[in-house]
Amino acid sequence: MNPAKVVIKKYANRRLYDTSGSRYINLEDIAALVRNGKDVQVVDAASGEDLTRVTLTQIIVEDARGQPSGLPLELLRQLIVASDRVGQEFIMWYLNSAFDAYKKVQSSLQDRLSQMQSAALSPLQTVKSFLQTPAANQARGSSDELRELRHRIAELEANPKPKSQRGRPAVTSKRRRKKA
Fold it and tell me: What is the pLDDT along the chain (180 residues), one digit of tens a residue?
């Protein structure tokens, strides 16, 4: 899904007018639009010439001015040297490839960080499950014991021994032989 194109008119006095927002904006506002995924097109108000490339380059230059880092000097020199079309196409291919590689590394890094986060939480989950499991086993064991005791009581109630055998030891065959 392509976002709606935001058309910006650049006037001779260097003012920028956002036609979709009906307001004057500056380079920082355009940078924010681009960072938010908007498709921006800058056109000359008088001639209709497309100034998008020049304006985006100006934003990059302005951003680099305030930071010690930015595009490496050697790359900037090579861009100037590569003034012919083939050289520019090669530089653009190289920059696109480098940026794609950068995005892949960022994505991979994000994936690994989320894996590390889940791995870091895993020991906590293991301890938590370890602590909860014995209680569940004890409860299960207690109910098994209780069920078994109830079953044994029911058996004893169903088959009571006669009163004459209660308290007497069982007579074995050896004792009978001695008495006889």
Answer: 456 799 999 999 889 999 998 999 999 999 999 999 899 999 999 999 999 999 998 888 887 777 766 677 787 777 777 767 777 777 778 778 888 888 898 888 888 888 777 777 677 676 776 666 555 555 556 778 888 888 888 888 888 665 555 555 555 555 555 554
The span from the CA of 78 to the CA of 144, in Å, is: 81
In a domain, 56, yes or no: yes
Structure pTM?
0.47
Q: How far is CA 75 from CA 60, 71, 79, 85, 86, in A?
A: 14, 7, 6, 17, 16
Range of the domain at 42: 1-70
On whether both 77 and 145 belong to a single domain, the answer is yes
